[in-house]
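Researcher: Sequence recovery benchmark, item below. Answer with residues only.
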């Protein structure tokens, strides 16, 4: 390996280590304790979390995870590990994987890089669109970890890549390759993970980033704008989230006469519960029940060659001078 003394920490959200209610409860508990994710006053939120959400949601969500679980484990982890291995091979510098919640943690990822002699670290959160709920949560974890160390490495942090030409190209290529094999749909919907609307009103740029990604992708695909739009999925809790909601959009499209619908999920770097179950299973059922005929989830970029090349270029750009 080259010895520039720098390493890359790839970060994603994290996932349960088993598809059992107990493992999911552990994961959700860590995730939903983070005030970046749920900002409600602690004395109000903690009784709801421990008294209602964890006991009720864990067994329910366990069944959903079981429906997408792969032989090697949770899809989010399996694809993330492939990305780490491929990027390391491609760059020929140490690349470690760390999850904000669960294992492998950010702490073990940083330790791995330290052990390999890296005193410069580039952090690449695999969230193309910045959100305080995801990207800033990564930053918090890194700061918390390094707080305990006498020597901190030189750090660089990639905030977003929602409009990076290589990212847009990778998305466009994955759609065109999918269509070359399966034919073109009547309509393409870009479904992004949602956040509470209030967070955006308070300055989270996430929806602006999602809009830009969609616009640039539409342009690149030369897709007529009447045949393409965007929406937000994975609503949680009672307050209003970013609109339009994915499920209602899909139902309306079927009722308007769209027979074949393809959905892409550009905010997800890898396929996971939210794409493989919520979109490919639940939303497909909604579409068919409302009169649609053919529904496809275009897979996430996962370990696509173009996706790894995009990461490689991001790393090269952000390590100039190292
Ligand atoms: C409670 C609020 C949540 C916010 C805000 C939120 C933002 C957010 N999440 C992702 C990416 C992922 N989320 C995933 C699962 C997931 N998300 C929430 C809640 C919030 N997400 C929950 C409770 C869960 C767990 C499943 C469930 O109980 O429904 C995942 C998948 C993880 C997996 O194991 O496969 C991803 C990825 C983004 C990008 C985002 C904000 C932009
Ligand atoms: Fe989420
Ligand atoms: Fe979901």
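Model:
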């Amino acid at each position: 390996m080259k010895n520039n003394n720098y390493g890359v920490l790839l970060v994603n959200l994290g996932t349960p280590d088993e598809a059992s209610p107990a493992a999911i409860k552990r994961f959700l508990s860590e995730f939903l304790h983070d005030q970046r994710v749920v900002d409600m006053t602690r004395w109000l939120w903690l009784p709801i979390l421990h008294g209602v959400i964890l006991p009720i949601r864990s067994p329910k969500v366990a069944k959903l995870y079981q429906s997408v679980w792969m032989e090697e484990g949770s899809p989010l982890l399996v694809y993330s590990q492939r990305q780490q291995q491929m990027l390391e091979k491609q760059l020929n510098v140490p690349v470690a994987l760390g999850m904000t919640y669960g294992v492998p943690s950010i702490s073990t990822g940083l330790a791995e890089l330290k052990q390999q002699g890296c005193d410069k670290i580039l952090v690449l959160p695999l969230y193309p669109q910045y959100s305080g709920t995801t990207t800033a949560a990564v930053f918090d974890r890194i700061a918390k970890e390094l707080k305990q160390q006498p020597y901190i490495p030189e750090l660089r942090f990639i905030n977003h890549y929602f409009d990076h030409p290589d990212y847009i190209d990778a998305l466009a290529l994955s759609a065109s390759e999918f269509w070359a094999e399966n034919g073109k749909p009547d309509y393409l919907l870009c479904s992004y993970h949602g956040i509470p609307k209030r967070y955006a009103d308070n300055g989270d740029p996430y929806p602006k980033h999602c809009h830009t990604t969609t616009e640039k992708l539409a342009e690149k695909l030369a897709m007529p704008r009447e045949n393409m739009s965007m929406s937000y999925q994975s609503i949680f809790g009672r307050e209003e989230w970013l609109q339009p909601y994915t499920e209602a959009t899909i139902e309306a499209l079927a009722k308007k006469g769209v027979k074949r619908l393809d959905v892409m999920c550009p905010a997800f770097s890898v396929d996971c519960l939210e794409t493989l179950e919520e979109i490919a299973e639940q939303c497909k059922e909604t579409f068919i029940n409302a009169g649609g005929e053919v529904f496809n989830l275009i897979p996430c970029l996962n370990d696509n060659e173009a996706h790894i090349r995009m990461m490689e270029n991001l790393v090269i750009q952000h390590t100039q001078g190292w």
